[in-house]
Amino acid sequence: MERKTFNVTFFLRRARTSKKGLAPILARITTNGISKEIYIQCSVDPQKWDQAKERAIGRDSYSQQVNTYLDEYRTRILQIRQDLEKKGHDATAIAIKDRLLTGTDSSRMFLAELAQHVKKRQDEVGKLITQKTADKYHRLLRYTQEYIKGAYKRDDILLTMIDYAYISGFYMFLQTAHECHHNGAVNLMRCLKHFILYALRNEWIEKNPFKNFSLVEKYDPSKKKYLTKEEFERIYNKEMPNKRLDRIKDVFVFCCLTGLAFTDIFHLRAKHIIVRDHITWITKPREKTSVTSLIPLLPIPLMLLSKYEHSNLENGLLLPVPSCQRMNSYLKEIATICDIDENLTTHVARHTFATLAVEYGMPIDVLAKILGHSNVNMTRRYAKFSSKVIKREMEKLSRNLSFDTSVLNKVQAGL
């Protein structure tokens, strides 16, 4: 069982001494190493204050009144702490301070506050976040309700009860009850962490339960989730058996040569295509992050846009983009037809673009701008370093290094 500590200290804020020569007295409430300070509406002459005794040392009536007030205030703090513990609440410094300031029990309930936070996030859709992100918060709320009902046998729990044990338990719940893989569970846990940090900033809780909990996604570099140049050309040059798959191939090829994610090509419209310096560009904010992608179009993507220019596609689409589920299903057919041993998905196209770009020498900073990444570290996850890249860089190193060949010849002769 965790040992709980509690302490109350009175001290002067000498820097706030008034014109009358009186310094305000503050109470510092400390529980489990976390402190909160509060003005107690009482002041004293700094010359008549003994910090070691935490008392006014003057013999005048005012000093005696100050000491009486301090005793009463300490008693009041102890009484609040006792009342909170009797009700089963966590008697933290924050909770005690809130009760002192408001005179009421302001203990906050976890699910009630999380529900309000989820509503706040929903109101931010289109301004700060996308609907997809807001949906993750709604899913988080639903799962936390399930977890608390099952693990705690309650409809709600105190916000102060969210500790490391809760965090790790909820993580396991996501992986078992809802069969979330690690990265999927981490995405939901990040939403929970966002709420916890919001609660910390509002001083609803004292400690961050995520402090020692890792939220690093796992990536297996041995799993190839992109196409090689040869595999891409095989798909591009292959004649599809029907119009349905031919359209899917066109959309996939367009993504492979622009780096657009599925949701971005689904929302690509004529307003995102501009001509500047005789070059056609895509300038579009990413649906996921709102960071603008700046993409000069190569001849093949331009040809594909021209192919469907007069097709009267629904909702102003520039390409015949189906739903993501149908697209991924049809891509599996294309992989079989082209003899590609890879689980083709819409996101493989984005990885393919990034990998080929790095393979042909595109700087990572430029690639980040095209992909619409605000952080280059995000780009490095996409840019897989194939054997061709390693070979190219080693050859470059070999050309730049200068060896004394005469010494090298002597060494070889002695072998």
Task: List strands and helices in order, with pairings.
Blueprint (H helix, E strand, L loop, with lengths): L5 E7 L10 E9 L2 E11 L4 E2 L4 E2 L4 H26 L6 H10 L7 H14 L7 H21 L12 H13 L5 H20 L27 H9 L5 H14 L5 H5 L6 E4 L2 E7 L6 E5 L2 H9 L16 H14 L8 H14 L4 H8 L4 H7 L4 H14 L4 H10 L1
Antiparallel strand pairs: 1-2, 2-3, 4-5, 6-7, 7-8
Helix pairs in contact: 1-2, 3-4, 4-6, 5-6, 8-11, 8-12, 13-14
Structural class: mainly alpha
Let me know the average pLDDT: 86
What's the arrangement of strands in the largest beta sheet?
Answer: 1-2-3
Q: Count of DSSP E strands? A: 8
Using only C-alpha atoms, the radius of gyration works out to: 32 Å
Cα-to-Cα separation, first versus last residue = 69 Å
Major beta-sheet overview = 3 strands, antiparallel
Poorly predicted regions: none
Principal-axes geometry comes out as: elongated
Order of helices and strands: EEEEEHHHHHHHHHEEEHHHHHHH
What proportion strand?
5-15%
Number of helices: 16
Helix content: 40-55%
